[in-house]
Every structure is written in C-alpha cells, then in structure tokens.
Amino acid sequence: MMITRVFITLLPYSGATKNNAFVYQIQMGGTTTTTTSVLFLPSFRYKTMRNSARDLSNRTQQENLMISRCKSGLLILDDALGFFDSMTKTKPIPSISVFNHILGAIANMKQYPYVLSLYKQLHSFEIRPDVCTLNILMNSVCHLSQVELGFSVLGNIIKRGYEPNAVTFSTLIRGLCIEDRVAQSMELLSKILENGYPCNEVIYGTMINGLCKTGNTGMALWLLREMERKGNLKPNIIVYNTIIDGLCKDRLIDEALELFSEMISKGLFPNVITCNSLLHGLCNLNWRKEATYILQNMVDCGISPDTITFNILIDVLCKEGKTSEAQSLLEVMLQRSVRPNIITYTSLIHGLCSSGEWKDAMRLFNEMVGRGILPNVVTFNTVVDALCKEGKAREAHQLLDIMIQRGEKPNTTTCNSLMDGYCLKGKMDEATTVFDSMLSMGCEPSVVTYSILINGYCKNRRINDAMKVFREMTLRGVLPDIATYNSLIGGLCQVGQVGSAQELFSNMHSYGHSPGLHTYSILMNGLCNNNCLDEAVNLFQEMETKGVFPDIVIFTILIDGMCRAGKIEDARGLLNSISARGLEPDVKTYGAMIGGLCKEGLLEEAEDMLMKMEEKGCLPDDLIFNTMVREFLQWNEIKKAMQLLHDMVKRGFSPDASTTTMIVNLIASDGPNSKYLEMFHKFFPK
C-alpha cells in the first residue's frame, strides 16, 4: 500500500531486526523470548479480583459489567490487571474488543509499560489484535517517547491488512509533537493528504494542538485556514480554544480576540476554557477593563467560572497587592461550591507573604491542609521564604522537617531560602549545616546557593570561609555569577583586603563576566572607605574608557570619598559636572557634599546648598539635618544649630542619638540655669 512510504520515509532505521526484539515482535506479529527492549517489564503474575470465579452462563453479563467499570474512569490498576487475568482464563476467550477496553483503561491511567507487557501476553494466548488494539499500543509507545516504535506499529497495522484510521495518524502526530519533532509531524500530515487518506477534524486538531504546545502558534493558525480551504472541514470549539490559548500565551491578545469573534460569528458558543484563556492573556497584559468585560459576559451567558477562572483572578489580585479582594474571591468560590486547589491557596499565600500579612498566610496554610489539600513544594517554598524574611529561620527549618515527613521533597529553592534566612540572622553554622545536607536531600547546590553562603560569610566578616566556598564552587564546576563577585569584592574591602578585591575584580573577565555599575560602585566604595581615593578616581576614569557610564550612585560615592579625604575642591568640581552628564544630584549626593562642607567649616556654603537642593525639588532628609545640627554645634554655631533643629522638628524629623547626646552635653556644660534648657524642653516635651 502507498501508506508504507509514509512511515518508511520518517523512520530513522531501515527496518526491524531480531536484535531489536520488541520492534521485531510488533512488526511481525509473533512472539519472542528475547527481552532486550528497554520497554519490556519483568514477567509477573496478575492477582485476580476477589470472588472472580463466575458462572460461564453469566459471561456476557460480567463482560458488560467489566466494560462499564473500564469506561467509568474509576478503575484502579490492580483491578484492571485482575480483569485481564480473569478474561484470559475464560473459555472461550472473549473477543479482542473486551481486552481493548482493559488496555484502554490502563493507558488512560498513564500506565503505559503495563500496556506493552499485556499486549505481549495477548500473543501468547493467540488473541489477534485489531486496529483498536494496535492504536492503543501505538499511543503507549508514543507516550514513552518511543515514536519510532509507533511507526513500527503502523507497519504492523498495514501488514495485517487493516486500514489506518484517524486515531492511528493523530496518535503518530501527537507522538512526534511530544518529542518536539514538529517538522516531521507536519511532513506526516502532508503525506497523509498526498496519499488520499481521509483527514478529519481529529487529525487536524491534534496537529494544531502540537504546534501550539511547541510555540508554533502562527503555523497552527495557518493550518486552521488550510483545514477549512483544502479539507473542507469546520473547526470545532476544541480547535479554536487551542489556538486562542496559544495566541494568549504568545501575548498576541488582539489576534486571539479576533479569532474569538470569528468563532462566535460561525455559531460556535464559547465555553469556560475559551474564557479562561482570554482572561489569562488579558490579565498578563494588565488589560483589566477588557478582562472584566470578558468575565461579565461569561457570567451573563451562563458560563460558570471554574477553579481555573478563580485562580487567574486571585493570582492577578495578589500580584497587585489586593489581598483582601483575593480572599473575598476565595469565599465566593466556596459559596459557589467551586473547589479551590493547591494553585488557589499557593497564589493567596504568596500574595499575603509578599504583603507582610504573615498571620493570614499561616491561617490559609492551615485551612488548606484542613481541607485535605496537601501543600506542594511551591507552597512550602513560599512559606519557608516568608518565614526567613521575617527573621524566623528556625520556624522555617521546622516546616522543612514537616515537608520531608510528608514525603514532599525539598528542592534547591527551599534550601536557598532557608540558608538565606540563617545568613540574615548571622547564624552561619546553621546555614552551613543546611548546605552540607543538600546532597543527601537530593538537592544540587546552584550558583545562587553558593552566592548566598558566600554573601553570609562576607556580611559576618568571615572572609576566609567565603573564599574557601568560592574555591570549592569553581572546583565543582559551578561558575560564579555577578552576585558572587559583588559579595566577595564587598567582603574583601570590608576587612581591608583591597588588593585582593581589585585582583578579583580584574579576574572577572576570565569567567565571562564584565563588571557593571553595581560592581564598580562596590569596589569604589571599598576603595574610598579604605583611604584609597587616588585608586578610586582611577577606577572612575577607567569606567568611562570601558563604556560603563557612571550613574548618580557612583558620583555620590566619589564625592563622599573626596569630602572625607578633605578634598573639598575636587568634590565641588565633580558635583558641578553632574548636570552636564544628564544626571541630577539626589538627596544622598547633596548629603555627602553638605557633610563635607560642614566638616571643613564652610557652614554658610552648606546652608546655601541646603536651600539650593530644596529649590531643585530635592527635599532634605533627617540624615542631612542631623549632620548639619551636629556640625554647627561642633563649630559653636549654637543659634544656627537650634534654628536647624527647630526646622527639622517642624518637618516631622527627630534628632538621632548622636545629635541628642550633643544637645544634652551642651546643656549640662552650661550649668543648671542653662539658657538652652528652655529650648530643649520645647523640642523634647515631657
């Protein structure tokens, strides 16, 4: 037959041999004792159902009962295997259609290896398969990512004189798409059409679904038009839903809405799947007005929102910080008897944790468990991360233990969150314990894992331990990223090892990293803090030659460094050059300059700069006021200091501990009848 050219063209081998036992068996329809195929299961005995002994006179009735159970979708694997065993012991052996129902039920359970093993047993009982049997077999091997064996089954169908049907071809197309072999699946469709085989909505629908799932939505839309033009077929709601969903996932919402309108104009009524796809696409683009319109029309048309609908809306509300509305929507779900699932609760818990509503998050977590919905690794990770950010690493660790007890495997993200929680609390030994236990839990440390540990050591000034971890990660083949370098450079500078920090900075290129603004700012800040101003200036100049243009943070660091080094003229010149670069000083820039001017006794200029920054719309913060009050007191400008203090309090700021101490010392030094006492009471009422 002509169709043989189809599968021969696509098969990556010329034919089956006895060296490939299972392929050979499928094509030749015989049996073999060789079990070289990886798909073979060890032989096993199937347990029969309890009370399986039956009167042969009731065989037809029992077969019908069994078929009914298979169709119900409630059958479990052991019962299905029991049915098979029972049917093979019946005399006479039932027709192949009975066995097809059993094989089909097992395939629906996704227990594909069992289908293969049972098919082998059919041969031993000399039960001849029909095209339905072979289609089920083909479906199973394709789902096991063995589409080549699927083509071997096609050869068996043809050899036995059967006509391949729509299920046969759609199964092969689906199998190719599962393996991301879209071009070959399109080639197969083309061959089917060329050779005159009937191509119905199922085949086109399967191909369109495969294209959409592999991100080829444009090709799917083209095939929809070809289906109508060449095949003279009318796409059904499933085909339209598939393409609409693909377009929405590709953020092509206008095209999706256009197809939605076309579908309605052709008399196809949208269902909840259609509406969910559109809602999800609209919400992803923040088209809230259009999403509300779709939702309203959905309800008006009698399309009941399902769990997915509510999940989409709850997720959007949580991401917008509208957790109260999201929780209200959960109540609506329950009132409508729409059962929330793990995604519903995980979205809500994540939203509440992100908003700092920890108590509500834990309440929902407990409610979820109480409803019999077991948290998955994503849910646990959300709660563990939130606990750690709240400074409750120990409680997070207890939750990790519960997670393991319940059989839910933690992943690298879980361990990273817990390690970060311990590092934030300065508990490096506990963080290291989690790190050491990762491999035993089946978690592979990532670059993020190593970076968290390195950052923790650096923050706690344990730079030798940080460098040890850095060397270990490179030996294990985990390449450091920018975050790793930033932590180490900052840590080395913090303990005064500026030379090592500069060397590490220079070596970044050998690992394929180019320092960006943040890395430059860390090193520059470290140089300034370690009295290496000349090297900081050189670094500033180097940035521009390498095409990294300084931002206001870099300028502020250097201005502050110059001021602290007493180079006020250089700082003033650098400040004046900022505007020419298209930047504007921020409150920190002005704060650094004002602090430098005050230290040099240039108090009037500092006051002028305070006025200047306000004129430019940059309002001073409490840090600037506290700095100026202290410096004015230091230079014995008591009256001006008190005026600044008055202005500061009027703006809603409070003196910090250092400023308060200086004022108290000033009053104490002036004696019990200090003229400053009344002013002090004014600013600090009892």
UniProtKB/TrEMBL annotation:
The keyword Repeat applies. It comes from Nelumbo nucifera. Coiled coil: none annotated. This is Pentatricopeptide repeat-containing protein At1g63330-like. PROSITE patterns: PPR. Keywords: Repeat. PPR repeats lie at residues 130-164, 165-199, 200-234, 236-270, 271-305, 306-340, 341-375, 376-410, 411-445, 446-480, 481-515, 516-550, 551-585, 586-620, 621-655. InterPro entries: PPR/CCM1_RNA-binding (IPR051222), PPR_rpt (IPR002885), TPR-like_helical_dom_sf (IPR011990).
